[in-house]
Design brief:
Layout (H helix, E strand, L loop, with lengths): L7 E3 L4 E2 L2 E14 L3 E11 L3 E2 L2 E4 L6 E8 L3 E8 L4 E7 L4 E5 L5 E6 L9 E3 L5 E6 L2 E6 L5 E6 L3 E7 L5 E7 L6 E8 L5 E8 L4 E4 L5 E6 L5 E6 L5 E6 L7 E2 L5 E5 L4 E8 L4 E9 L6 E9 L5 E9 L4 E2 L2 E5 L7 E3 L6 E6 L5 E6 L10 E5 L7 E4 L3 E7 L5 E7 L10 E7 L5 E9 L9 E4 L6 E3 L5 E7 L2 E8 L6 E7 L4 E8 L7 E5 L7 E6 L8 E7 L12 E3 L5 E4 L8 E10 L2 E2 L6 E3 L9 E6 L18 E4 L17 E7 L5 E8 L9 E8 L15 E7 L5 E6 L10 E2 L5 E4 L5 E8 L15 E8 L5 E2 L13 E5 L10 E7 L6 E8 L6 E9 L4 E7 L3 E6 L5 E9 L11 E3 L5 H6 L3 E4 L7 E7 L3 E9 L4 E10 L2 E7 ...
Parallel strand pairs: 40-46, 55-57, 55-67
Antiparallel strand pairs: 1-6, 2-5, 3-4, 6-36, 7-39, 8-9, 9-10, 10-11, 12-13, 13-14, 14-15, 16-17, 17-18, 18-19, 20-21, 21-22, 22-23, 24-25, 25-26, 26-27, 28-29, 29-30, 29-31, 31-32, 33-34, 34-35, 35-36, 37-38, 38-39, 40-43, 41-42, 41-44, 44-45, 47-48, 48-51, 49-50, 49-52, 52-53, 52-54, 56-57, ...
Amino acid sequence: MKQFYCILTIALCLLVVNTFAQQVLLQQTVTDASKGQIVLTEKASTQSPINESVILGGTSKSPNINWRLTESIAIGANLRISQEAQKTFISWYLNNSRASLYGNSPTPIFEIPIDNDFVEAPIDMTADGLYLALGTDNKLRVFDGETHTLIWEKDFEGYVLAFKIAEGGQKIYLAETEVAGEAKSRASAYIIGQDDPLWTTDFEGNATAFAISGDYSKIAFCQYTGVNKMHILNGENGEVIFDTFYFNEHPPAFSYDGKFIILGDYNGKAYLYEYDEDGDTYFEKWSFKVGGGGSSAWVVAASISADGSTVAIGTLVFLSADYNGEIYIFNTYSNEPIWVYEDCGDSIGSISLSDDGSLIAATTWGPMDHSKPDYFLFRKQSNVPIFTINTVGSLYSVVLSPDGTYCSVTGKRVHARMMGCGGFLYNINTDPGGGKLTGNIQLQGADSFENAKIVIEGIDNYYGYSDEEGNFEIKYIPAGSYTVTASKVGFYPDQTDVVIDEGGITTIDFSLLPTGNPPVNLSATQGADYTISLNWEHPDPSATTGFNIYRKSIAEELFPETPIATTDNNLLEFIDADVQPLITYYYVVTAILDQDSESPYSNEVQGWMASGFMTNEISAYVGTTPVIDGTLSPGEWDDAFSLDVSDFYGTYDGNPNPVGSVTMYFKVNEEMTEFYVACIDQNTTVLQDNYTISLYIDDNNDHKFPATGINIEGTYWARYFASRSLIVYRPVYFGGGVGQILFIPDQQIAASDATGYVVMEFVIPMGDDEYWKLNPNEFNQSGLLTFNNDFDSYWPPLNQQILYPLTYGTITFGAEDEVPDPPTGTHITWNSPTAPVTITMSWQQPPINDFDHFNIYMNEGSGFELLGETIGTQVFYTTNNTDSTLFHVTTVDKAGQESEPSENMIFNVPQSINEIVGSQFFNIYPNPSGNITNIKCEIVNPGFYSIRIFDLNGRLIQTLWEGDLQSGDHFFRWNGKNDNAVELTKGIYLINIKGGNVDITKKLIKL
């Protein structure tokens, strides 16, 4: 492996002691996992001595510091850069607050004093550097970037939170908060120089953050405390086109065209939303739960490349006695990280990407002992930093130029968590140097040349992929001699040697030859069971050594290089049990030809598991009073509503549990004064102290908790201790605050592991006479979230917020157990006109929250009989019978109640070549039919014809026509009655046309 190191210690080690004639402000940042970020400020007459040493590091020789500025008392806040003008615009705050414009040195070109030392003044600069803007309190000023003269000044009703100048300096987009001194906020757009807005959009509650797409088409307006919403506005008119939950104090980020927006929250979740042009709204493309190994984590930084290809997020991880931070990099099409950089020592400050996503710059607060860098520069392909800076403070903000060649960085000259002041400003050359490898790959016999992989051997993570035409490019390769490998599944790899020159471009081409025959006719089940079954064929399995099965869950993603499984060459099937509900999986299979090669991919198929057990609604039926003894006696909970609450997504802790591993039961007494709950946790085999089941209940189901001090809604904790089990109530307030705990009087709770796994039973009191009692709304409904203390259970499974009941499930107390609806959307196909025939039937799951199974019925002419039952919405039936057959399906709930039948599914293989040929001039429709059946005959040879209806026993039912027919189309109708005008029963009938050289019979199913 070749690596290039450049470690430089700037041994200035100046011991700077600043003594001031007047008092200065000092600042310290405190983060509370339950409350958010708090900034403390105090006055002091002196600043403590600071060691000014700076340590540079990384794996590349090229990046370096162009210049740096050390501020004695001011802290760096907001940054903007102009790649075209090579300028940096920054706002300083806390002491000597001002906005400063810099060029190629730390000497300011232009400065604007700021009167308010307590705010991080918002600023902006156009990409060409021709326009600057500064917001101070209620005032916004726009300056000429070259003459530095004031162009426009305006006072607003609200505090100027953030803004963006459009290129050309003609328009500005603005966010205000505390409008007219009230808890209101506003978004607006102005022509610079005009006092009347182009549009305004007002919001109740204050604003927290603001972001805008590079083309100004989309605006994100964010409200944290009290409102917790991110609104996305149309930049042309200010109309709100989308909103979603927002639990953060940091802004989201758009791709240039607004197609994507990335948002993080204080629950450790990141969400990528994609714009739906047809609906003029956004939808969640994916979400991701960060790790870090702490008690909790926040997503505190989010960025996306202008081209929308790359997403980056940064975290703050809360450890037991310390902090940490991590950086995650993604392709926008997948929530699987490309890489993670761990152990940054504290919170990530900010992240900035080059327009093409190839370079990532990140700042951190760093550990308190400054043992790790505060600034990192990465390539997209690798989590090994190519350049780092380690300061004696904390770095807050970074802005990387669109082409990735330089950036500016600012922060605080002492650690963010220490009381102090002073700041840094760095201007950094971020060009990684090296050379570029380009070329073209031809895949012989292929229609497309995309997704071949090109790897630079001998150095880690220098690779690229070909596009549809076969073109590829790999940048920033350190100068040297290398072997390059080109490969793709289904083709023999090729290698060649190259020389990469510093600053040069090397071009090579490849032509890859195809390997052997791939598997064919791959199929996957779609909702048939809790697993996904694959089947395939191969022309000569003996010529292979086995088969590789590949899987992905994102359509745009490449299949992984490592298969999920391998089978022997005599096994042409595979059952994938490692699947989750409501996820579509994509599969391909290859034949293993020898140790180093495999066939091309088979056809790609989609599969998914059954998910009828999933619901967001609970019906707590009226039932008998259980004995609360930690044992589920036979029949004791049969009248309760049962629910699979297994954490099969790993929603909160990232560790999925098997479907069906945790079941809960719910019912109430007739007076609805007691809510009975039981739980079977098969994941926990030994009962230990503090085993807890939590129920977060939004009593009135209005999707929000009450204001602070109103204790009527909150959490019930059912906790086991060997000495004494407890039921505890704790109020929860709007905004995530909590109240004092209360021990429920006359507690009824018991738990046991005598069955080999944990069983718990308990009772929640109901009523309106005590604030701590469960008190549903007028519809006897409440919102509910439940989980146990180790998150083996979690319901509803897609809920992302614990203290915000926006997406809690709904529980109805005293609900009626209604007969379920039948399945809809029935569909039937078969694989052959001759025996043996495999029939595939599918249908749609009806709305049901207590689903148990489906019954499948078959009618071969003598009435419907039960064929079998299934938990899925797809079933396969192999038969040697090719006679016409009817199938239908019913829904069965957990109480055994069965729905009406679905629509019939008709298996009808043509019985003769004559019928197949005749189908082109003898059609009956609809089929199946109700009262009226249409019959169309296309007569070629004129003559005498008869059209008759028979039953399956050959008895004549009715003669529709008997006489001459001329050439051409003729239409007849049958009303479903016999010759005596008596309505016939449902069943299968035969329609025969006879005459000339035609004698054709078709089957009709009458409903």
